[in-house]
Sequence to fold (169 residues):
Amino acid sequence: MDEDTEPTLSVDEFVEYCRIQAGLLSGQVERMGEEADELLAEVDERVGEIRERLEEGRAAATDGPPTAESPTGAANNADVDVAELEELQADLEEKQTLVEAKQARMEAFQELAAGYADLATDLSEDIDDGTTALERIVDFEIDHDAPAYFTERQTLLEALAEAGDDEDD
Fold:
């Protein structure tokens, strides 16, 4: 190919690019959803452990004959390990924070995926020039900080920036 010849840019190829990006983001959301489900299962398990320990402590507190120290027959609460319960609660709170962060991240990925899908539709319906389509995608990726969402794939924005850097050398 002659260096003076510009490649022909196809709107359809850019539409497909947007759809692929949306699909990749949706796949990441699905994977994050599975991770969030695992964390929620761990949260449920921790809550169950805390309840079980508290019930054991209540049962121990109501068992036993009355004494001078405990006229109702309540046993010493030494059976309930407060430090262990506090540790379980701290672990529970940490997992809940992770779930909330994962949910926020999932929402951000979903919004970007929807944005790419909408952009694909707009390009296919409104644009008939490949250069204009490219500009719209680059503007979209700048506005939405799209490269931050793709750790294993290069966006058009990054590819153009890299190509510009290569031309400067």
User: Anything to note?
Assistant: The chain has four helices and no strands.
